[in-house]
Amino acid sequence: MAGATATSYTDQIVYTDEIADFSPEIIAEMESHLAKYPPERKRSALIPLLMLVQRERGWIDNPGVNFLAHFLDLEVTDVWETATFYSMLNMRPVGRHHIQICKTLSCRIMGEPEITEHICSKLGVHPGETTEDGKFTVSLVECLGSCGTAPMMQIGFDYHEDLTTEKVDQILSSLG
Ligand code: FES
Fold it and tell me: How far, in Å, CA of 37 to CA of 33, rounded?
């Protein structure tokens, strides 16, 4: 199968002292999140701000992490330990459509392996890889909280449930 090489989740991180730059509008958006928490609890804004960094930079990169550490008066390691815990935060660039297939028990029992195999062979990648055209990344993730409609996957912010291979084909062909 073609596609970028599947490697560990954090192996493409390049550690530098570079600090990301954000526009005044984005800084104002960050400040608005920060204002929801007491001044001594800046760390509470970390997840919404990580989501914002991801939205602006496409993924959680080292300069983005350095920025948040300064912005929130945290150690860089504080930011990394939160960022690397959640599968909704990408530790490397992903394709235009990030397909996250739930691999936990209910989905596994209800057909996740067949769905994963179908998607991967259709796109020519392994889990963890991005298609050569940068359109799709396929990831296997832990429970997404939709166990009653297993098997399921998340693409971007949308949930797709009660999956069959036919349904997967329809979903993939609808994505531009
Ligand atoms: S086990 Fe797949 S959503 Fe919970």
Answer: 8
Pick the CATH number of 97-173 from 3.30.470.20, 3.20.20.70, 2.60.40.2310, 3.40.30.10: 3.40.30.10
Q: Which residues sit with their C-beta closer than 6 Å to ligand 1?
A: 102, 104-107, 143-147, 150, 152
Q: Which residues pair with 98 in a beta bridge?
A: 137
Closest CA to 151 of 114, 124, 99, 117: 114
- How far is ligand 1, taken at its centre, from the CA of residue 143, in Å? 4
Distance (Å) from CA 25 to ligand 1 centroid: 37
Surface-to-core class of residue 122, CB atoms within 10 Å of its CB (0-12 exposed, 13-18 middle, 19+ buried): middle
Task: Give the residue carrying structure tokens 């073609």.
Answer: 2
pLDDT in tens, 28-61: 999 999 999 999 999 999 999 999 999 999 999 9
Q: Which CATH number is 1-92 given?
A: 1.10.10.1590
Going by DSSP bridges, is the β-strand pair 136-141/97-102 parallel, antiparallel, or unpaired? parallel
